[in-house]
């Protein structure tokens, strides 16, 4: 099929426009498509970003937190990378892992719109798993220590305290080793 | 052809190979405390490369080669892209990008693409459970050395909100000539979207594809675990495989001579042409694959001709093998020669 505009090159961009039920098809070669103001084929990524910005800037109807009612919410800035929420709505990209904490309250709505879900249920990093396990172990030990204190078994309480310290030291070492 | 950047996946026959060419899994990972590439300056990005290179030095012992993208010339980078080993983005702004590449195990790790790390595995056929094991293991090895940006609510944290969660993109490249010829493709691909999957044409513009190749991948990364995402993709792909085969049977029953004519003409053109454009060559190669998979071709041709030539006849590959200075006309001549030589030696 030849290009509708120049009639010389093979048409490789096909546009379908439906206005009031009237279907119109346009077939263009890449050159003409690029020149055409209707479609810039280098703009694929941009249109995706602008779509995302649309979602981000959407006025959420169930705004219940003070974060949203605060008109200054656009001015929230991530202290780690300097990204403001407003910049985020334009670029559609987070600047670092800390942004997620800073923009926390807006994100569940955003993820709901993109993924239909708001909670991760996949894989965990090993360190995160170990951390959760270590924390639950520490909590149990703290209860044991409390019981020992109540029973005036101070020798045992001291021993448990040392165990807790040892686990915490291990965790820190693990972190610093990376 | 000796080519250190060629991923050997396309040389191997895979499961369901009459429809599925390859399966791929990509994981995005970022590091805690470090700014993501889009917010980092060149100095920070290069520091990150140095840090990763030293912390991940164990990769050198497990078959990985390390490359600074700026150390590769343009043709080498294009070859990697044509092989689907790196993204288009990774061939640009190369002074701040790097790559770990393991050809024998079909693994690549892009550094400073949209995320700090993009792990990828690519293998022939329809093999998600196997390739998941390999990339999961690689991810765990990296995890031991690095501190990933992770939240218990939202999983692996990524630059783009569309990747958050598992940060996993699983995809297959499939050859669907009968669905295209019978005009059923739009319906079926439209339905795919309803399952949270996306489709795009490969080796073509927009949603069309000269070689009737399509890439289907998961769109949703949050709320489902990796296995669930792969199972959903697999079950939809399985349906598509069934429909493609049904259409092939139907077409053969009803349009036998027309199809045989079309396949034989394609074979004739490739066997005798002296100049071939890339899209043209892909189109005819696609028809030959179709002819082989439906027994329309009686000639003795290598059963994996299509997979073997798919990348080999692309511009950057031709330049890599026959000289950087080839202009478009010479490339077209070279392309025809490569194909002619293979088809005439059978």
UniProtKB/TrEMBL annotation, chain A:
PROSITE patterns from the UniProt entry: UVR (PS50151)
Domain UVR: 135-170
Highest taxon, organism lineage: Bacteria
One Pfam family matching this protein: UVR
InterPro entries attached to this UniProt entry: UVR_dom, UVR_dom_sf, YacH
Coiled-coil parts of chain: 131-177
Keywords annotated in UniProt: Coiled coil, Kinase, Transferase
Any one of the GO BP annotations: stress response to copper ion
GO MF entry, a single one: cobalt ion binding
Official protein name in the record: Protein arginine kinase activator
TrEMBL record, chain B:
Keyword Transferase set for record: yes
Coiled coil location: none
Residues in Phosphagen kinase C-terminal domain copies: 19-247
GO cellular component term of the entry, any: extracellular space
InterPro entries the UniProt entry points to: Arg_Kinase, ATP-guanido_PTrfase, ATP-guanido_PTrfase_AS, ATP-guanido_PTrfase_cat, Gln_synth/guanido_kin_cat_dom
Gene Ontology molecular function, alphabetical: ATP binding; creatine kinase activity; protein arginine kinase activity
Identification of the protein by name: Protein-arginine kinase
Organism: Halanaerobium kushneri
Record lineage: Bacteria, Bacillati, Bacillota, Clostridia, Halanaerobiales
């Amino acid at each position: 099929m030849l290009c509708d505009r120049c009639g010389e090159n093979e048409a490789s961009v096909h546009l379908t426009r439906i206005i009031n039920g009237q279907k119109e098809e346009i077939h263009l070669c890449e050159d003409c498509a690029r020149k055409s103001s209707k479609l810039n084929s280098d703009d694929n990524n941009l249109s995706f970003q602008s779509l995302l910005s649309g979602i981000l800037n959407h006025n959420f109807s169930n705004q219940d937190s003070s974060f949203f009612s605060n008109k200054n919410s656009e001015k929230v800035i991530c202290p780690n990378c300097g990204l403001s929420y407003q910049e985020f709505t334009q670029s559609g990209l987070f600047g670092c892992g800390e942004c997620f904490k800073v923009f926390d309250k807006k994100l569940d709505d955003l993820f709901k719109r993109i993924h239909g879900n708001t909670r991760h249920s996949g894989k965990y990093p090993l360190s995160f798993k170990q951390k959760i396990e270590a924390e639950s172990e520490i909590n149990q030990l703290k209860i044991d220590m409390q019981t020992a204190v109540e029973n005036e078994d101070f020798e045992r309480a001291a021993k448990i305290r040392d165990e807790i310290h040892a686990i915490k030291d291990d965790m820190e070492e693990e972190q610093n080793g990376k | 052809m000796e080519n250190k950047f060629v991923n050997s996946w396309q040389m191997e026959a895979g499961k369901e190979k009459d429809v599925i060419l390859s399966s791929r899994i990509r994981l995005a990972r970022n590091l805690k405390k470090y700014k993501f590439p889009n917010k980092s300056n060149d100095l920070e990005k290069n520091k990150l490369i140095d840090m990763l290179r030293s912390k991940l030095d164990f990769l050198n012992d497990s078959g990985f080669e390390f490359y600074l993208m700026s150390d590769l010339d343009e043709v080498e980078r294009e070859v990697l892209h044509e092989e689907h080993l790196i993204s288009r983005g990774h061939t640009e702004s190369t002074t701040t990008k790097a790559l770990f590449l393991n050809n024998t195990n079909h693994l690549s790790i892009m550094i400073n693409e949209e995320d700090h790390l993009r792990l990828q595995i690519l293998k022939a056929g329809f093999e998600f459970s196997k390739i998941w094991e390999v990339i999961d293991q690689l991810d765990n090895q990296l995890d031991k050395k690095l501190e990933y940006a992770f939240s218990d609510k939202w999983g692996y944290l990524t630059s783009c909100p569309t990747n958050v969660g598992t940060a996993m993109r699983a995809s297959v490249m499939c050859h669907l000539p009968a669905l295209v010829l019978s005009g059923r493709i739009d319906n079926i691909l439209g339905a795919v979207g309803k399952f949270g999957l996306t489709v795009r044409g490969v080796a073509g513009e927009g949603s069309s594809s000269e070689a009737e190749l399509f890439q289907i991948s998961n769109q949703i990364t949050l709320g489902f675990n990796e296995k669930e995402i792969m199972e959903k993709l697999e079950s939809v792909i399985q349906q598509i495989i069934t429909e493609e085969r049904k259409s092939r049977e139907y077409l053969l029953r009803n349009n036998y001579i027309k199809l045989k004519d079309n396949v034989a003409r394609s074979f004739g053109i490739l066997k005798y042409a002296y100049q071939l454009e890339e899209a043209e060559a892909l189109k005819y190669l696609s028809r030959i694959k179709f002819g082989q998979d439906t027994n329309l071709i009686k000639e003795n041709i290598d059963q994996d001709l299509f997979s073997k030539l798919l990348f080999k006849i692309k511009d950057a590959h031709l330049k890599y093998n026959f000289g950087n200075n080839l202009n478009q006309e010479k490339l077209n001549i070279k392309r025809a020669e490569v194909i002619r030589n293979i088809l005439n030696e059978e």
